Each structure stands twice: as structure tokens, then as C-alpha cells.
Amino acid sequence: MTMRAARLSGSTGLTAALVAVLLVLTGCASLPESSAPQALGTIDREPTSEGPTPPIAGRDPDLLLRDFLQATADPTNRHLAARQYMTPAASAQWDDSTSTTIVEKPDTLLESRDGDRATYRIRAQRMAELSADGAYRAVNEPTLENKIEMVKVDGEWRIAELPDGVVMDITAFTKSYRRYVLYFADPSGNTAVPDLRWLSVPKNQLTQRLLSLLSEGPHGAIGAVVRNQLATPVALRGPITKANGDPDDVGVGLGGVRLDFAGAAALSQRDKELLAGQVVLTLAQADIPGPYMLLADGRPLDERYATNGWSAADVQYLSPSVQAQNRIGLHALRDGALTQVTDNGVVETPGYFGSVNNLQSAALSPDGQLVAAVADAGRPAPEPPRTLMVGTYGGPAFPVAEGGSITRPSWTGDGSAAWAVIDGDRVIRAVNDRATGTVSVQGVDISGLTADPAGPALRLPITELRISRTGVRAALIADGKVYVAVVERRPDGGYALTAPVPVAVGLSTKATSLSWIGGDTLLIAREGNIDPVSTVLIDGSEWTPVTSQNLTPPVRVITAAPGAQYVADSRGVLELTSNTTSELHYWTEMPGLVGTDAAPVLPG
């Protein structure tokens, strides 16, 4: 099931407002760069609602129940829209705050009906749970069954008894809710870490809601490994307004946002920049336009932006999508050696990795200076057949670990360590000391994966492990299933993988390979001929098949970066391309990279 966040379309009113703004702008010869930002007006003003639509008169009870499962997707006024379908007594007793469950294809099954009373059972496939803070969690749990008692009130069927908690149809969820991204800082303060939320909020209340969620902090286990600059002793001070101080319709149309943070004046310069990065990236991603006038205890947070305010471009360097950009080009394995794909063809790389013919997989550090690769040792049993080699690009390499199987290595964003899994159950970090050129091997604690108290235990073996560029998450395939775990650094300097969350639930075939696209999306390959390549968000939402046009399964390896996706299928290496005149996507063979031993290699 593909789930996408719904977006509201424009209207004739919007068009008229845009024309009015354009007429104003065309009357201006130029705007001085030093002028303070001014609100040019308000567009996209949301229509005034007179309240939720009442139930359809004369509705049969089974159809009324289906309407009810649509109405529950409106959380306004404690789900007032849904409460209209209940008797006053049932509405008073119903607690909508206990849980929110998203279901697919609900059935309304009649159990009994006698005059003005009826009993129904709602049966549906659980898809996800939504927490109060908007965090989405995909589930693969038993079918939901709720017993519903109905009575006639003044000739109309109403719900008289129902379990606590909200149940909503996925179709209604996608219409009412939209995905937003909160941003926090990684431990080093070098990149922003995304935290996805699904909200149903009027646009004129969205700025306040997002900032409130930022101040509450990240959701779940990731809270232990990220930094939040909008936390005690820093807090919002005074009202949120447009850049010119107008308190009405903040975040709707033009005019920017003005925010004052108490306690922020005492922050270091770097922490002020991280605070601005969190706030600006979060608001910009939500289509709340700038300029963003950020104050610290009543004075500019940073004097450089005192006049014109902050823009998304000023903090874009913190974006995980920017951090994940491929800056060293495409490489590939061919005939067991590391090669570089250039405009003039495929050429062998210099040094050890380009001169051998026994490499099974390889990974490049983000700056392209280091290489980690799995080599066929060529030794007879019972000697370990695989060796993890680490070295410099164009230089020598040396063995750091061996085993019966070793996963494709994965470098951290700063190139300090390459991660791999030995024999499916032992995770290691090959830590590189750039000052001395030495590499040490450090074991990683994975007990939190196999004995997670918060959910079902992950089953070994681990056959793929990829570290995100933010460094705080790891995507992995275990027993053919896809998980996202938290990378936790311990006080003693050790590392652990904890809190695994299943993200590609309900797969009918086993996953075989995966890769990060930016900071919140995974590209996944799986067995079989039907939808062998898909994308999914890190919370398990928006599972979206990628075109299989020109693919010849099985898909063996995938690798990705923002704007670039590559796979290796049964014929060779292919790149996802698009038609310049349409939105049609298809896979294109890479010249010189044919055969079952060819595989694409990108940094990471």
C-alpha cells in the first residue's frame, strides 16, 4: 500500500491573491538589500470553518460506521467530527487520547440487529500507530476487531458503545494528515537529524505546533543521541508573529516569522547557529516561508542576520540531504577490482583496490580518501573465506578482520570508521586514526537489537548494515526484514545498536540490499520480480515502489545518494533516470559495467 501525505490544492482565491502580489511587485524598480523585511500581505488564507460536517441523515448503520472511520481523521476539538456519530452518553465516555490506530480496508460486520438496536464488529488490518506527538510507527500486528453497539436516536443511527482510542481509515489519514520533519543536531553539531511527525493542523496554527514539538524534544530512543538547542534553559519568549510584528495568520502566505528565545543570549556562537538551523530547517520544510527573524532575549540572535533575517539557504549546510551528496563520483566493482566511472569510460583505480581481482564488496569514505572492502581470501576450509581490507584510495591496504561472511562495509559521515557485520551476528567498527594511519577494530554491542524490551526481538543473521550520514541511525536487514536502529555511543567510548524499529513491514519476500537516500529515506531491494526496488521512510510510512522498467531481477545490490540511485541486477549495473519531457522513470544500463560480478559503489 502506498501512503502519501495529502496536500491541499490551490484555489481561485489563491490565484487572485498571487496576481495582486505580482501587481505590487511589478510596480517596484528594486528593493534595497539593507531594507528590513516587510509583510507584503497574506495569501493562502484558509477558509473559515463553521464546524465539522454532520452525519448524513437516514444513513444505514453499516454506512454510518464507515463514515465514522473517515471522521476520526479530524482531531479538531477532541475529534468533534467523530463524536457527532455517537450518542451524548457515548461521546462523554469515549477517551480519544488512549491510542490512535491507522487501519486498511475496514469491514463492518453485522452481528445482530433488533428494532432500534444493532451490534457490529469492525475488522481491519492494522497498518500503523500514531502517538500524541505525531510519531508514526508501522506495525504488522494481528487484525483489529472492535465491537460497536448502535442505537437509533430520533430516527437516526448513532454509536452507543465503542472502545476507547481512535481508529481511522488510511484513506482518511492521508487526506487529513501531512508529514513534517523536526530537526535536531547530531552529537558533533555538524548535521541536522530528521525526526518525522504526522500532523493535522490548520496552517495558521502550524508554526506554533512545530515549535512546541521542537521544545518537547525528539521522539523515542533517538532522544538519547541527539542535541536539542530549543530545550531548557532556552524557551520561546512572547508571542510568535510575522516579521513585522503582526500576530495574525503567522506562517500563512508571505510575511515571514519573528521568534524570540529566552535564554538564547547565553549560548555559544556555534549553539546559536544550531538553534537557528533546527528552527529554520523545520519551518522551511513545512512550507512556512521566511524571512526568519530570530531574537535572543529581545536582541538579534546573530547580528549578521539582524536586518534581513535568516533564510533556509543560511542553514542548508546542516541539512542531511546536503551532507549525503555524492562529491567523488560513481565507482564500481568489476572483475573483483575497484573502478571509477568517468566521462571517458570505466577505469581501474590506482593502488591495492584497483589492482586485485578478489573483491566481493567495497565502500568509500565520504571524502573518497579511504576504502574498505571485503575480499575473497582464497583459503580452503575450515579457514575463514572472507577478509575485511581497509586502506587508502590509491594506496596500500591491510586486513583488519576475517570471517565466514562479511557484509558490505559502511563508512560513517566523517570517515572515522567503517562498520561491518561478521558471520551475521558480530558487528565491528574499523576505526581509522588519520593522524597515525593506524586502524583498530572495535566490537559493537548488539544486545539491544536481539532483546529489545520495547518490542519484538530482531532475529539474526544481519545481512546488511548501513550507517546514516547523520551517524545516529543504522539501517539493517536481519532475517530478510528491514529495521532502523539507533547508534548509541557509550560513556566509555564504545558503541551499541539499540531500539530497532521495523520499517518495511508486511513484505512478501525477503529484503536483500538497502541504502540511505538523505537522512529520512531508504532505498530497498528485495527478492522476486514484483516491485523489486522500493523506497520507504524511516518511520515505516510512504512505502513506494520504484519502477522496475528495464530491470532483470534478482536485484543484487543497490546504492543511493540524493538524486542518484543505482542497482546491480542479473545483467549488470543500472542507473535510475527520467525522461526529460515527462515524469517517466526507468533504469538505464551503465556502459562497461555488465556481468553478475559488477556492483555500484557510492560514498558511505
Automatic annotation (TrEMBL):
Residues 35-60 are annotated as: Disordered. Its main location: membrane. NCBIfam families: PRK13616.1 (NF010141). This is Lipoprotein LpqB. Pfam families: Germane, Gmad1, LpqB_N. Belongs to the LpqB lipoprotein family. GO terms for cellular component: plasma membrane. It comes from Nocardia farcinica.
